[in-house]
TrEMBL record:
Oxidoreductase keyword on record: yes
Residue span, Acyl-CoA dehydrogenase/oxidase C-terminal domain: 241-388
Lineage: Bacteria, Bacillati, Actinomycetota, Actinomycetes, Pseudonocardiales
Record's keyword terms, sorted: FAD, Flavoprotein, Oxidoreductase, Transit peptide
Domain Acyl-CoA dehydrogenase/oxidase N-terminal: 23-135
Pfam families: Acyl-CoA_dh_1, Acyl-CoA_dh_M, Acyl-CoA_dh_N
Protein name, UniProt field: Glutaryl-CoA dehydrogenase
Signal peptide stretch: none
């Protein structure tokens, strides 16, 4: 081989994984990166410090223009892109901030997917084009104050009253809730668990914002209160009965997390690498010391193994062979790995690691929420364990 044609080692892509991406996927990555650079990165540390995302509606419209809202869905104004395309976008969004990727995931993989997969044609026509454009924002109400990992025990109830449904209950930790135009709410009924499309201007619906949180601060997190919310018969998602509906939506969101969490880890690694070559101690850059190089190598192995896992799962999803247990595998390992990388990167930055001048502490605290939502470590470990042994450890 001609030595001039040999590839060079890229510290930001040590395994050459970018070579596995198509020209279109590289363009998606670069477009999402540019949106983050122009509309989020300069402001997100301040939003995080203040505990708000003041431009959420403007951001939704920009994301809609780019085509990333419900981008893996087909028809109704959605881009109809591949699972890998969507994953590449999630990685870039979360490398900016987990709250931004959560906005997109809840909109596309939870609220829009629920309507797209389980809704009526009327639901789809009414909501999906506007949501894909970012002109309407959705949220997804499943988790309750006393029931997170066990949604079958939910207390929110929908009763029939003539041809109407009347919903009563509370949902908790709902991204986008306070700013949403529509909520997909799951409730027990006499016929089992059903999903409902709830306009947020319905009488009896309110969504007070949750404050005093120390994670996902640049994100709108809400409680949903349903006080005798009356809905017409057409509000029910006709194709969904039981927990299959909401669990299928969670699986869509978990897939995005596999990529997104790794984006946060990549941002931490890149920050630590840059810092290590600039920061001088004992007369030379700290990147020249063995302990720092060992940390950088370990972080690089973690991040890029995570990229390979995400890409593998994305290709299986595009092929129609991805199993829920495999998504649990990816969510468990990539989020856990991202936290390890963030914590190691913080040590490389020393005291600077706790400052919002750098993204590391913001990613670290955000990842604590990512670790919990869409299934805790314990739930995903038990899902994998049950698949391996054929024995359920969830219930006696």
């Amino acid at each position: 081989m001609n030595s001039s044609a040999r590839p060079t080692f890229d510290p930001r892509d040590p395994l050459g994984i970018d070579d596995e991406l198509s020209t279109e996927q590289v363009a998606i990555r670069d477009s999402v990166r540019a949106l983050c650079r122009d509309h989020v990165t300069p402001y997100v540390a301040d939003w995080f410090e203040r505990g708000e995302m003041p431009t959420v509606r403007e951001l939704a419209r920009e994301l809609g223009k780019l085509g990333v809202l419900g981008m893996h869905l087909h028809g109704y104004g959605c881009a109809g892109m591949s699972a890998v395309d969507y994953g590449v976008a999630c990685e870039e969004l979360e490398s900016c901030d987990s709250g931004l990727r959560s906005l997109v995931s809840v909109q596309g993989s939870l609220a829009m997917f629920a309507i797209w997969r389980w809704g009526s044609e009327e639901h789809k026509q009414q909501w999906l084009p506007r949501m894909a454009a970012g002109e309407a924002i959705g949220c997804f109400g499943l988790t309750e104050p006393d029931h997170g990992s066990d949604p079958a025990a939910m207390r929110t109830f929908a009763r029939r009253d003539g041809s109407d449904w009347v919903l009563t209950g509370r949902k908790m930790w709902i991204t986008n809730g306070t700013v949403a135009d529509v909520a997909v709410v799951w409730a027990r009924t006499d016929e089992g668990v059903r999903g409902f499309v709830v306009p947020t201007d319905a009488r009896g619906f309110s969504a007070p914002e949750i404050t005093r949180k120390m994670s996902l601060r640049a994100s709108v997190t809400s409680e949903l209160v349903l006080d005798e919310v009356r809905l017409p018969a057409a509000a029910v998602l006709p194709e969904s009965e039981g927990l299959r509906g909401p669990l299928s939506c969670l699986n869509e969101a978990r897939y995005g997390i596999v990529w997104g969490a790794n984006g946060a880890a990549r941002s931490c690694l890149e920050t630590a690498l840059e810092y290590s070559t600039d920061r001088q101690q004992f007369g030379r850059p700290i990147g020249g010391f063995q302990l720092t190089q060992s940390k950088l190598a370990d972080m690089a192995v973690r991040v890029h193994n995570g990229r390979l896992l995400a890409l593998h799962l994305g290709r299986r999803k595009d092929a129609g062979t991805l199993l829920p247990q495999q998504v649990s595998f990816g969510k468990l390992d990539n989020v856990r790995g991202a936290l390890e990388v963030a914590r190691t990167a913080r040590t490389v930055l020393g005291a600077g690691g706790i400052s919002l001048e750098y993204p590391v502490i913001r990613h670290m605290t955000n990842l604590e929420s990512v670790r919990t939502y869409e299934g805790t470590d314990e739930m995903h470990a038990l899902t994998i364990g049950q698949a391996m042994t054929g024995l359920s450890a969830f219930r006696d």
